[in-house]
Design a protein that fits this description.
The structure is a single chain. The chain is 22% helix and 26% strand. The chain is built from 3 helices and 5 strands. It has a 5-stranded mixed β-sheet, with no helix packed on it. The longest helix has 17 residues, at 44-60.
Length: 150
């Protein structure tokens, strides 16, 4: 009986409103700038180990290929083969409790001499599996062939 009076005449506790936090977190895994070893004087064994470690990390974190940007020789006027490619692997995980997306990324540059080895080791194709961002403006240069409408 006392409980009923407490419920009727007692102070009601207000439920605290907790807003949803921002919708995205971003975690970049630092593995080095290049596919291989950063040391210019490293031996073949060290370079192979550095490449394997990068690929192992991509597979362990279950990252998928996202973006590629090819770089070309600026001194030549004709479109030659790319001299390097900057690749990005990402994984997005949705946290339903917080209504957030957690993004994990690994990115690095692959030299043209390592394209075939990289594709074999990672099990991806630079041309098919990545979204190509090479045609966008980069470092102030516009690579569009047609003029923009003004």
């Amino acid at each position: 009986m006392i409980e009923i009076f407490k419920k009727l005449f007692g102070k009601k506790q207000k439920e605290e409103y907790i807003p949803d936090p921002p919708g995205r977190t971003f975690k970049r895994i630092l593995t080095g700038r290049f596919f291989g070893c950063e040391d210019l004087h490293a031996g073949k064994h060290q370079v192979a180990k550095a490449k394997k470690d990068k690929i192992d990390q991509i597979k362990e974190l279950e990252l998928i290929p996202k973006f590629v940007r090819f770089f070309y020789d600026d001194t030549s006027e004709e479109d030659n083969d790319p001299i390097s490619a900057h690749v990005s692997f990402q994984k997005e995980v949705f946290a339903e409790k917080w209504n957030m997306i957690h993004v994990t990324e690994i990115s690095f540059t692959v030299n043209s001499t390592d394209f075939d080895e990289f594709e074999k080791m990672a099990g991806v194709s630079l041309a098919k599996d990545f979204r190509n961002l090479s045609s966008t403006t980069f470092n102030g240069k516009d690579r569009r062939t047609e003029n923009r409408d003004t």
